[in-house]
Design the sequence.
């Protein structure tokens, strides 16, 4: 059974943190085109954490989720609330360095734009590789095997639409869906870095939601959850 730290007394926390990993979910509120909710990445993060808790709940303590994060690449669109990379990086550092017992901590986020802050914080983290590529390709050299299979489909495209159809179909407005930039992201890295997503896609979409379906979303979620559990197992050893 999963323990949320907000429910513990200090002695209980001190006793339980000794042999568990503290998991801190990092959400995101940012535009996801005209058809997906702005909390899409938070919904996905929450679902993956629930699966992690179901499978490894006795080996972790769960912190409350941070609702906002770094989404500057979307800030020219309404519906985006970004604290920026520097502030997020500082916040993550404070969260871990103020911890007197130096517990093992794992940050978890379905939003790839948090990668630069995560790298700065020097703590274990998990982000879907599929997102890592796109939203951070402009700033970070990624190994070839980290180049995701859904590269051109990184934001509010078929992948995220399928996942949301699996999680919260009531929040998906398929009749509003439009395609966005469909080309290679590595070729427009400098535009993404200087002008954000709007520089290549006026709809705010990277990819094409056409063909998205629930079954595909369930399969993607299962793959992401398995990857998250693998990372957790490495951190908790
Ligand atoms: Zn997203």
Sequence:
């Amino acid at each position: 059974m999963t323990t949320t730290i907000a429910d513990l007394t200090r002695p209980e926390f001190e006793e339980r943190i000794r042999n568990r990993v503290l998991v801190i979910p990092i959400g995101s509120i940012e535009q996801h085109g005209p058809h997906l909710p702005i909390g899409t990445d938070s919904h996905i993060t929450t679902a993956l954490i629930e699966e992690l808790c179901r499978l490894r709940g006795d080996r972790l303590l769960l912190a409350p989720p941070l609702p906002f994060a770094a989404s500057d690449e979307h800030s020219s669109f309404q519906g985006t609330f970004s604290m920026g990379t520097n502030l997020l990086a500082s916040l993550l550092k404070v969260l871990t360095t103020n911890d007197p017992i130096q517990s093992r901590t794992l940050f978890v986020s379905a939003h790839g734009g948090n990668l630069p802050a995560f790298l700065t914080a020097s703590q274990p983290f998990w982000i879907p590789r599929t997102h890592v590529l796109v939203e951070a390709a402009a700033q970070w050299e990624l190994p070839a095997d980290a180049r995701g299979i859904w590269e051109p489909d990184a934001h509010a495209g078929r992948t995220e639409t399928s996942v949301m159809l699996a999680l919260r179909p009531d929040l998906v407005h398929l009749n509003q869906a439009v395609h966005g930039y469909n080309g290679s992201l590595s070729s427009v890295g400098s535009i993404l870095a200087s002008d954000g997503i709007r520089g290549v896609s006026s709809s705010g979409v990277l990819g094409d939601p056409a063909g998205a379906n629930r079954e595909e979303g369930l399969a993607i979620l299962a793959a992401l959850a398995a990857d998250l559990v693998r990372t957790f197992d490495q951190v908790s050893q």
Remarks:
- Confidence is low (pLDDT under 50) at residues 131-150.
- The longest helix spans residues 214-236.
- The beta strands are 3-4, 21-25, 60-62, 105-108, 125-126.
